[in-house]
């Protein structure tokens, strides 16, 4: 849904951001919701991660959600 944005917190931590940091999620590539600050998410996604953790463990076999939908 375009324009819908929800952040989830657990024990004061932004779960969405923590998942991106861990390599278990990626930043949405569509148009951000009005007022949504995606900067921290892009920063977290750009940080190097251990290849054995999260989606990185799949190597070349990983297909992003966007690529999967377009296939």
Topology:
Elements: E1 9-10, E2 13-14, H1 15-22, H2 39-46, H3 65-70
Antiparallel strand pairs: 1-2
Architecture overview:
It is a single chain. The protein is 31% helix and 6% strand. The protein is mostly helical and 71 residues long. A two-stranded antiparallel sheet has the order 1-2. The protein is globular.
Strand order of the largest sheet: 1-2
N-to-C order of helices and strands: EEHHH
What is the β-strand count?
2
The count of helical stretches stands at 3
Question: What ranges have pLDDT less than 50 throughout 5 or more consecutive residues?
Answer: none
Average pLDDT number: 79
Question: What general outline do the C-alpha atoms trace?
Answer: globular
Estimate what percentage of residues fall within beta strands.
5-15%
Give the CA-CA distance, first to last residue: 20 Å
Major sheet, described briefly?
Answer: 2 strands, antiparallel
- Compute the gyration radius: what is it? 13 Å
What is the share of helical residues? 25-40%
Query: Structural class given helices, strands, pairing?
Result: mainly alpha
């Amino acid at each position: 849904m375009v324009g819908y944005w929800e952040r989830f917190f657990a024990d004061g931590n932004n779960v969405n951001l923590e998942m991106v940091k861990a390599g278990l999620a990626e930043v949405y590539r569509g148009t951000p919701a009005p007022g949504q600050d995606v900067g921290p998410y892009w920063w977290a996604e750009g940080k190097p991660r251990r290849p054995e953790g999260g989606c990185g463990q799949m190597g070349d076999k990983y297909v992003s959600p966007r690529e999967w939908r377009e296939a």
